[in-house]
Amino acid sequence: MENLEVDVDALRRGADELTQAKEEVRQAFEAFQAGLGSYAQAFGGDEIGMLVGVAHQACVDALTECLSTNVAELESYADGLHGMAENYRSVEEDVTTSFRSILGSLGG
Question: Which residues, by range, are in coiled-coil regions (predicted)?
Answer without folding.
Answer: 1-28
